[in-house]
Write the structure tokens for this entry.
Amino acid sequence: MKIKKYGLAGLCIIMAVIVAFCYSKQQETVIIGINLALSGENQVQGEATERGIVLAKNQLNKRGGMLGRPVKLVSVDNHGKPADAAMAVEQLNMRHVAAIIGPNVHDCAAAAVTNIMNKKIPMISPAGVQPDITTDTQQNTVYPYVFRTAFLNAQQGETMAAYAMEACSAQKMAVLYEDTACSCELAAHFKKAAERHGGEVLLYENVSGNMDTSAVTAALKEQSCQAVYLPVSQDTATVWIQALRDAGIGCPVLGPDSWQGEMLAAALPADYLQHVFYAAQYATDAKDPLSEDFAEAYYEMYGELPDSYAALGYDAFMLLAKAVENGQSVKREDIAEQLNQLKEYQGVTGNMVFDDYHNPIKAVCILNFWEHEPAFLERQKAADI
């Protein structure tokens, strides 16, 4: 009996030592959670964002990690579903993460906010572009634990209006949009900015499901529009750019940051893409050392050039690292406090100046096409919104 008793006691001691050892190892490692759509409709964007985060983590660990401690990433696939995104916060909280990167998708990010605030975990949405991710828009109060690295739709729409009027010398414009929240928001901000600066929007048309393009192109010709803003999906953009050029309308066409230039180039002839410009959060050939170094490192690791999602994920991780460095702490409340205090940050997507609602104000990359390939043209400074 004594032997069994002492054997059981010894086993308990061994188990206690193992648990203590594992706990101490966990304490030595800084865990950052990832809450992205790694399957489903938004899988491509989620995986690109995660690759950017992984690159940033690897680079930081080579430099000594966060405060001399290695960083480990824990990913939870939210499948692009709001309920799963909210549950992912619960799961990551159980893993004792210091902060969470993601979600990207608006509905998922908005659904995660309640749990984020309840658990007081700093969260950075790399690609969320709607105001209500970082702000309670009904109360007009900022969420102290929620941040972002992408510029807002408001800034994008107004900056593209400024570009149309300044760079394209357009005073008479048309806006063709779709019946989605993002498209409507971009269209409204473009129109507002154009009219505020003395321009005219002569045609403001919802083209959702409208494959009979002839009536719209006829109206554009009749109004002598000098530029067309087309904040629509990739597939819809292809249809309408072809329709405009087929109708002999050669004026500048401007698009949103959701366009993929390579796909447009594959779908349309080179001459149809002349005077086509679109916004981007990031460009691989943007002429600054930080962006170029990131693109080279990404290509070396993955064998392909990064897109905007990868760059925004990279910036989100490095923004967290900056907050940890500034506060010399990996405690959640300290990271959030430092993110709240951070007013400016130089990332691979550009220099960010944060407003009181945790929104980064930064230049918008403008791309066009050169020899039938997308090419960085310039950075359009942020419009006064």
